[in-house]
Amino acid sequence: MDKKQLTIKEIASMAGVSVSTVSRVLNNKAHVNPAKRKKIQAIIDQSGFQPSMIARGMVYQRTNTLGVVVSDITNPYFTALVSNIEAVAEDFGFSLLLFNTMTAGHTHQKDTVQIEITAFRNLQEKKVDGVLILGGEIDQATPDPHYITALEQMAHHLPVVIVAQPVKGVDCEFVPRYQQMSAEMITEHLLASGYKNIAFLGGQPDITITNERLSGYRKMMTTYADYSAKNVLLSDYYVEDGYQGMRHFIDTQQVPEAIVAINDQVALGAIRALNDHQLSCPDDVAIGSCDAFPNGNYFTPRLTTIDHHNEDLANIAVNKLLTATGQEKIPPIPTPALPTLIIRESSGHPLKKKKE
Amino acid sequence: MDKKQLTIKEIASMAGVSVSTVSRVLNNKAHVNPAKRKKIQAIIDQSGFQPSMIARGMVYQRTNTLGVVVSDITNPYFTALVSNIEAVAEDFGFSLLLFNTMTAGHTHQKDTVQIEITAFRNLQEKKVDGVLILGGEIDQATPDPHYITALEQMAHHLPVVIVAQPVKGVDCEFVPRYQQMSAEMITEHLLASGYKNIAFLGGQPDITITNERLSGYRKMMTTYADYSAKNVLLSDYYVEDGYQGMRHFIDTQQVPEAIVAINDQVALGAIRALNDHQLSCPDDVAIGSCDAFPNGNYFTPRLTTIDHHNEDLANIAVNKLLTATGQEKIPPIPTPALPTLIIRESSGHPLKKKKE
DNA sequence: GTTGGTAATGGAAACGGTTCCCGATAATTA
DNA sequence: TAATTATCGGGAACCGTTTCCATTACCAAC
After folding, report:
1. What CA–CA distance (Å, rounded) separates B346 from B261?
2. When comparing pLDDT for A103 and B35, which is higher?
3. How distant is C1' of D11 from CA of B18, in Å?
């Protein structure tokens, strides 16, 4: 807290050599007398000298830092993603500069667009080597034009990888996920289990994820049962949204046989609402959801859900980003794994229709 | 991705002035002709020039970046903390450099000490203005000596704030939490509800948090009931640990009347284990826990738990850190709020003894 | 004994900004 | 009109590191 950091210059004078020589030993470059090298190395070691990465950054024009802009790190889906990304990045010697754009107090829409845009600006100023975007305005069906211009301006200067469905006209790398497919899978599973009257619950309207999943649901419903807009109840991605949504179904006497929940949190909220009205999942209402949050296997009932294979996503995203930065050979970018269905209790037993 | 970033030099030549003049308008310094200032500003704006913070860092010797070393960002407790910290830091114009030291795949103990130490090194090299430590080796009852020396060496060069119980001999700022008190509160609540045979479940042995909470539990038990070591079952902080722990109680026919769980995840696991054996919480076993994870209010049963007021913690931690960096006046550091008991369903109804 | 090649070393420029210092011009005052 | 003072703008040093280049010394071969 007091003693200032040493500089290469001081090391040089301690060792009685020039700065260039010290630099050569720091970087294992040739052309330095073995004896001298050993001596200098010793001085470095026991003085605890650490070269300034920011000075290095000046000359190399790279910081070995990746920017991560995440909409809500509190969402288990993103938490897992960030955690995996951090692990992969660290493997390649990169650190993460983290920006969380939805303020902690869950102050939705407190001009998150502006927050994201200033995050972009910060990242450029701090000269990160690349940026990863997870959720946020990019997921809007029609993102704010200011956002798009800010994004493109940034993407013009440094590599940007976005974990989201591609947005037309935005020139970045996208890591798509099989949103529609996962909704199809979960809906199909419920249909195959004998449920007909299946509702769709949760998700903010006009968000790409919602739209994709909804259309997967819709596709399956129209082909194998009946699709009705009355069975679709959107709101948001949080547990309270599932709770309120389910309550609405109950209050309006429109309780469906089964529900496709936009994610595990919403499913949890819905289940709790059922319990509060002496209804049971899966006996009264079966539920299937997406996103495979870590605790879902311990809920009562255990959640039937879709695993999106986050680790793969993280791998792909970071690898894409690093190759875009022109990194030395990165292991080949893995192809994304398809979502897999995890059948547990909340959807009832296959082919065992709900009790009448 | 292609066009290189502009430099102040280029702006200067575009505007036909010297670099110093551009710098003056960038920093709102005096001694530049208003007309010229306006013109230069215009060029800056429409060229999208952004001064390099790393070059600035060189001269100012500060980066406006805070390092965060967190043991497991996947743990909801830490997630919430990081999220809050990010919000506070951003308010003061700081970004976060994030290091997650327990690798994503939950590879416990894969030499996390070494990972933490290299994180320290990275942070120093990257010249962050201060470091925040959340969990990890520092929580060990007897931390690895290598870790301690690395920590002290770092703390010698830059401000470090640790969200943990103070460790003797380590010269850093600590933000203590009322771990013992919270365990006392939850135990007291169970005792007041009429339970006598109360077990303690979860938490890694030899971790400060575990020890503190355990001693709170022990204190209340010895004074108001009977303390027996057989009622203490430690393991870890995850949901599976709660599950296995509860199973052990069941398998060995030592099912207690009530349980103090180390956190909400463990509580969830325990509840699920009960359900799997046709036992109910709270009817057969009441459960109280700590940490107030966001979803606890939607579990079945809703979790009785302790709120540690994370937002306050984040505020205190960041404020302490920023004042330590010698920041311009920071709002006074708030005094930590005491933990509060949240009574919900899992502990049964107060004064209503468990059914026989 | 001159030449040539190579290893070891130091000096200096460069990276992109900020800031101090100083000279030049314009404005004010004697 | 001359002297003094503000105001403005340019040059240069500096932050910590790398790298290019020049210098010296050494050794071998002709």
Report:
1. 11
2. B35
3. 9
